[in-house]
Amino acid sequence: MKDGSGEDQNVAPSVYSHVSRPGSHRYKNAKKGLPFNVMLVGESGLGRTTFLNTLCERTVVSSNDKTNAEQAHIAEPMQFKHHTVEMDEDGMKIILNIIDTPGFGDGIDNEACFTQIQEYLETQFDEVLAEENRIKRNPKFKDSRVHALVYFITPTGHSLREIDIEMMKRLGSRVNIIPVIGRSDSLTPRELVLFKQRIMNDIAQYEIPVFSFPDGEDEDDEETVEENAELRAMMPFAVVGCEEVINEDGRPMRVRNYPWGVVQVDNDEHSDFDRLRYVLLNSHIGDLRDRTQNEIYELYRTEKLSGNTAALANAANAANVQQSSHIMTAA
Ligand SMILES: Nc1nc2c(ncn2[C@@H]2O[C@H](COP(=O)(O)OP(=O)(O)OP(=O)(O)O)[C@@H](O)[C@H]2O)c(=O)[nH]1
Ligand SMILES: [Mg+2]
To answer: Where is the stretch described as Disordered (predicted)?
Structure first.
């Protein structure tokens, strides 16, 4: 962020953060707040709700509202649960819309979940497309296109599972997928390094189109190029969430407390959470929104309109064939 003097001003992205990062919001004048829509997908119990509360730095969904753990073995159909939270991030107002998907991957056949999510994403595109085509625009139109899908990978330490590959492959062209390792404190640092490598190998081998931090040419500023290279090397982000805040030397610190030690959620040496939070709500919020509009939506729009054109052409051809057969019969 540049202050009035034109100097770079380093800011701590959150009260819990251990490091200062250069602020880089480019939407300072979005007075009403910048809408940002994030979907959370992952199997039950991987820490999506805890992640949501940790990301928002408040209890958006309380433990009481969480799925009843005793009933957790009963597979329920997947749902879309919406939570809207107003955030003030480094002087920038963000209207964060979170769409949680409890029930994902709980059944034996996950096809219905993939289809439901795909349809959800496409419906939001269709609404924008319809709005664009209206003669009189609706000033209250709410753009609900999903800008980022945070996909939680189970911390098995092995490699991606079929459900992960299938899910990310299918939806990568419809949304910016950011893969994360959920409950990553269950792996040792060495296991985590290996697991990350295996996941990235799978992503390359199966050609899974996850969000990639832009690598050069288009980015003129050297700092951004370096930052993006660092973020690429960090993928998939290893996240830890918690509900406990302790006081450490007069500073609030978010932790998971174990008999053998303490995991500090916002400490870069313990997890990638703080870095991911900064990516989502600060440094890359613009990239994620722009890519959704300029690449993902544009591709969908072209497909949809050319599909419609093809469908219309087919219908017209069928009508012509029918007409000519009538003519032939009549003759
Ligand atoms: N070790 C560890 N446990 C976590 C972490 N995040 C959440 N948990 C715990 O995991 C359990 C499930 O967390 P939730 O946040 O409810 O997970 P969820 O994905 O929302 O679960 P469902 O809504 O039931 O699908 C709780 O006991 C959390 O305290 C984490 O980062 N590490
Ligand atoms: Mg939950």
So the answer is: 1-24
